From TrEMBL:
It is found in: Secreted. Plays a role in the control of cell shape and motility in the trabecular meshwork. The keyword Repressor does not apply. Keywords: Disulfide bond, Glycoprotein, Repeat, Secreted, Signal. The gene is VIT. GO terms for biological process: extracellular matrix organization; positive regulation of cell-substrate adhesion; sensory perception of sound. One of its GO terms (cellular component) is interstitial matrix. This is Cochlin. The lineage of its organism: Eukaryota, Metazoa, Chordata, Craniata, Vertebrata. Its main location: secreted. PANTHER family: COLLAGEN ALPHA (PTHR24020), VITRIN (PTHR24020:SF23). InterPro entries: ECM_Assembly_Org, LCCL, LCCL_sf, VWF_A, vWFA_dom_sf.
Length: 696
């Protein structure tokens, strides 16, 4: 009878395993799911280094900018670049995109109905080709964007390079004595921001769209657990996506069948020792993740960063709210980061500032030049206590930390990582802005965010979005628990070392205060004045507008002058465009010289430090007053002046207003309706000049 029961069990097991393998084969042969993107999506906003995407119809439009020919700058529209290259037409279609290194120059051209623009240089490029998979390359079914939202892996069928052996019983994986949770954390740093807690991790490898292997150096040894011990601590396993569901169903069927056979055998009074052993073997890898052993994460398992050179300051939370136990977890996390960075005088250097009521430097950049000494020093840090004054700490770092005397090397990017338990007890937006404008890249790692019932206690809602650079998904990580903090060591290290993606560095599109000085004299006329406003709007919308990026202001003049809106009035692109549309035509004489002086006093004297001050003056006639003296004064105060003349504008005055060389800063058109022709040229000249100037 016992032999019959054993035979029955193995029959069920083999049947379920075969079913799982067949289901896996079908899934692997399924057609590649191609995600769709919008016309305005730029290649630089997508994290995946290579992907296939489907473009919708109607992307052949001048508002979807393209920079380059054959090889394109990464802030070009993917779909319009594909049209320009001839891969697709205006009806849309599939495109294969490959990211490549930045180039020193991009040549503009007219091709397939699309005018691409020239650009001196950019940090990243991409190529487009026919939307067919390359042999041996795995393509994502869901694209990962550089935003604060996490990108879930869809369950649509997709290609995978997973070994069919991985779909066998969990016993095979168990023989290695390792779990791949840490490896997954390394390879999925851009895929999801939330991190799983140890009680929900699985001991099997979950395939990602871009990686199908696990680095052995990042795996964590797991203790063998008996079935009885496992059953007393097991929590319900979290559902796993994709192909693993097939395997889980097979395992569940085997376990259920085995359990039924055990019960039947027990009812007949038979020996069930064999059945207990088999059920344990089947369940061991499914249930063992619930044991408490995984909270012991060895420091030595973290993969060391390569070719990393940054000057890094950690702001550690020493407030009373964090408590002693979590403060120790924070120190362990900092030690792990130091180990993963590989501290050295030629590579990354790391200092720590602890904040509470007031910040203080625990040690600066030059205090320790190897990971071992740094980790030992971290272990000796004592908690300060007090409030969580993050804004105060950021101001302190901005003024006092990155100094030559403290080991700042100048050639390495300055990076600050802020650790926050819950939320700050002061405001961070202004302090963060000033720090970023000083060239500091700010990352936030927030742990245990405010619950719904606690949100009324938060002084500055959405403080992280206000504090970090505009690509907030890259610069912020939220962790649900201090016990999960070790899971973000590798993703964080990879981000702070990715100097090409430290996007808070200034570009020609995000680093200016642009003031428009608009002629509203009687000779312009109501209809032409609306055309001028459209010209102003077309230029403005090409820039990245916010209170920390490019800002826009406007002055209208006749004999008199009127401030239409200042640089700090509007902080979004849509608000600026609406404000331009609302400007009413004034009518009167033409005193251009007085208007330049007025703009210098009312606009550019209030420009931010580290912003390029750009004046764009549009006029249709000769001025009643002198323009050369006010223009020279503006130039001496750092204002870069562009002049745009229409119809009866005087060429000598346009050149006097313009910065040197005048031929690159002054433009003339014979009719108002032709103003649009100079939108691209004006922006290109602004970018050319920006890229040729030294800047921090």
């Amino acid at each position: 009878m016992k032999a019959t029961v054993v035979a029955t069990f193995f029959g069920v097991f083999l049947t379920c395993t075969y079913t799982a393998k067949e289901a896996t084969k079908k899934a692997k042969k399924a057609k590649l799911y191609v995600p769709q993107i919008d016309c305005d999506v730029k290649a630089g906003k997508i994290i995946n280094p290579e992907f296939i995407a489907k473009c919708p119809p109607g992307c052949q439009d001048v508002k979807y900018r393209v920079y380059g020919t054959d090889i394109y700058a990464s802030f070009s529209s993917v779909c319009n670049a594909a049209i320009h290259s001839g891969i697709i037409d205006n009806t849309g279609g599939k495109v294969l995109v490959q990211k490549v290194a930045g180039h020193s120059g991009y040549r503009g051209s007219f091709s397939n109905g699309v005018r691409s623009l020239s650009l001196p240089r950019w940090r990243e490029s991409f190529l487009v080709s026919e939307g067919k998979p390359r042999k041996g390359v795995t393509y994502p079914s869901t694209l990962e964007y550089s935003s604060s939202k996490s990108t879930a892996v869809k369950s649509e069928p997709k290609k995978t390079e997973q070994d069919p052996k991985d779909m066998k019983s969990a016993d095979t994986a168990n023989t290695s004595g390792k779990a791949s949770d840490e490896g997954d954390a390394v390879h999925k740093e851009y895929q999801t921001t939330p991190v799983l807690t140890p009680t929900t991790q699985m001991a099997t490898t979950t395939p990602t769209p871009t990686t199908t292997t696990t680095d052995p150096s990042t795996t964590v040894p797991q203790p063998t657990t008996t079935a009885a011990a496992t059953r007393t601590t097991a929590a319900p396993a979290k559902a796993r996506p994709g192909l693993h569901r097939v395997r889980d169903m097979a395992y569940a069927s085997v376990v259920a069948a085995a359990a039924r056979q055990v019960q039947a055998a027990q009812g007949r009074g038979q020996n069930t020792a064999f059945w207990g052993t088999s059920t344990s073997a089947i369940n061991r890898n499914i249930l063992r993740h619930n044991t408490g052993a995984q909270r012991q994460e060895p420091i030595a398992t973290f993969q060391r960063a390569a070719n990393c050179k940054v000057d890094l300051s950690f702001l550690m939370d020493g407030s009373w709210s964090i408590g002693k136990r979590r403060f120790q977890l924070q120190k362990r996390f900092l030690g792990n980061v130091a180990q993963a960075l590989g501290i050295s005088s030629a590579g990354p250097l790391m200092g720590i500032v602890q904040y509470g009521d007031d910040p203080s430097t625990e040690f600066n950049l030059k205090t320790y030049v190897n990971s071992k000494d740094l980790r030992n020093a971290i272990e000796k840090i004592q908690q300060k206590g007090g409030l969580s004054n993050v804004g105060k700490a950021l101001s302190f770092v901005n003024k006092n930390f990155f100094l030559d005397a403290n080991g700042n090397r100048g050639g390495a990017p300055n990076v600050v990582v802020v650790l926050v338990d819950g939320w700050p007890t002061d405001r961070v937006e202004e302090a963060s802005r000033l720090a970023r404008e000083s060239g500091i890249n700010i990352f936030f790692v927030t742990v245990a965010a405010a619950a719904q019932s606690e949100k009324q206690n938060v002084i500055e809602p959405n403080f992280v979005d206000k504090a970090v650079c505009r690509t907030s998904g890259f610069y912020s990580i939220n962790v649900p628990s201090w016990f999960s903090l070790h899971k973000v060591v590798q993703p964080l290290v990879k981000r702070v070392c990715d100097t090409d993606r430290l996007a808070c560095s200034k570009t020609c599109l995000n680093a200016a205060d642009i003031g428009f000085v608009i002629d509203g004299s009687s000779s312009v006329g109501t209809g032409n004045f609306r055309t001028v406003l459209q010209f102003v709007a077309n230029i403005s919308k090409e820039f990245e507008i916010s209170d920390t990026d490019t800002r826009i202001g406007a002055v209208q003049y006749t004999y008199e002058q009127r401030l239409e809106f200042s640089f700090d009035k509007y902080s979004t692109k849509q608000d600026v465009l609406n404000a331009i549309k609302r400007i009413s035509y004034w009518s009167g004489g033409t005193s251009t010289g007085a208007a330049i002086s007025y703009a210098s006093e009312q606009l550019f004297s209030k420009s931010k430090p580290n912003k390029r001050k750009i004046m764009i003056l549009i006029t249709d006639g000769r001025s009643y007053d002198d323009v050369s003296v006010p223009a020279m004064a503006a130039h001496q105060n750092g204002v870069i002046a562009y002049s745009v003349g229409v119809a009866w504008a005087a060429p000598d005055e346009l050149e006097a207003i313009a910065s040197d060389p005048a031929k690159e800063h002054s433009f003339f058109v014979d009719e108002f309706d032709n103003l649009y022709r100079y939108v691209n040229q004006l922006i290109q000249n602004i970018c050319t000049e920006f890229n040729s100037q030294p800047r921090n």
